[in-house]
Amino acid sequence: MLGIGYALIGFSIFSIQDATVKWLVARLPVWEVLFSRSILIVTLCMFLLGPARVRELATGTSRNQLLLRSSLILMAWLSYFTASRSLHLAEMVTIYFSTPIFAVIMSIVFLKETVGLARWAATILGFVGVVIAAQPGDTTHIVPVLLVLFAALCWAATNILVRLIGRKEGSLSLMLASNAIVVLVCASTLPFVWLTPTSFECLLLLLLGFVGASGQYFMFEGFRLAPASAIAPFEYITLVWAFGWGFLIWGDWPPFPVFIGAAFILVSGIGLVFVEALRARRIVTP
To answer: Which terminus has fewer CB within 10 Å in the chain: N or C?
Structure first.
């Protein structure tokens, strides 16, 4: 339950990141926004960890897993940030919630976790909501939808890797490794895509780095303390925030199917909250 609590805080913070990114990529290149976000996180982690720990990460036994996770994160964020230019915030986040379905399946295959009937039911109900919200018959925005789905697949894989690597590495180490590759790759593109941000955009970039760092920390702690299949459906809390931020900032009113899909997803997540609470109580009582 503590792990689920940490993850809920992290997911809520990430909703601020989504809104900030959508605002920034309307004018600034995706590579530049992603670089600015990650360089702030890397600088903070290096300061807190110290040079000795950084060298250990570069040469340790988890190096290959950390490199794989960083590559998946880079692909996920590039796809997600690009899609944010074309989709409403609520629509984008709703489709992105195919992540728990991928995460539950991967937790069985790679982590050998036992996924009970309640978790399966919540995940499948959430998937139905995603399909309704994605409106697969509407081909006018199929490319950004596919980009979000690809990002969800990559992100689910990174969550599974957190469970594997988190047994040996702390959250700050995971944050540093996850963002270092992003910084290196994005930095190589800056001479070709750079646009000087305005003063207001600079403030938004600083906010993006702060919420990105704090959101990652809480999320990593959550996945280190609780099974991936138990945490995955709780990411649906971001839906509430996405609808709110989208309406307050841009006046977005998503299509009706998005509301129907979001309702399915919220019911699945809330139902699982009660199931996990009862399960924890049964474990503690003896």
So the answer is: C
Which two structure tokens, joined as six digits, stand for 171?
Answer: 């959250």
Q: What is the pLDDT of residue 65?
A: 82
Using the 8-state DSSP alphabet, how is residue 26 labeled?
T
Q: Which amino acid is at 61?
A: T
Q: What is the pLDDT of residues 156-185, one digit of tens each?
A: 888 788 777 766 777 777 788 888 889 999
Amino acid at 83: A
pTM for this entry = 0.75
Radius of gyration of the chain (CA): 18
Q: What is the DSSP letter of 188?
A: T
Amino acid letter, 45: C
Domain-by-domain residue ranges, the chain?
Answer: 2-284
Query: How far apart are the C-alpha atoms of 33 and 31, rounded to whole Å?
Result: 6
Strand stretches in the chain, DSSP E: none
Q: Which amino acid is at 129?
A: G
The predicted structure's pLDDT at residue 24: 93
Per-residue HEC secondary structure of the chain comes to CHHHHHHHHHHHHHHHHHHHHHHHCCCCCHHHHHHHHHHHHHHHHHHHHCHHHHHHHHHCCCHHHHHHHHHHHHHHHHHHHHHCCCCCHHHHHHHHCCHHHHHHHHHHHHHCCCCCHHHHHHHHHHHHHHHHHHCCCCHHHHHHHHHHHHHHHHHHHHHHHHHHHCCCCCHHHHHHHHHHHHHHHHHCCHHHHCCCCCHHHHHHHHHHHHHHHHHHHHHHHHHHHCCHHHHHHHHHHHHHHHHHHHHHHHCCCCCHHHHHHHHHHHHHHHHHHHHHHHHHHHHHCC
The string over 185-220, giving b where at least 16 C-beta atoms fall within 10 Å of a residue's C-beta and e elsewhere, is: bbeeeeeeeeeebeeebeebbebbbbbbbbbbbbbb
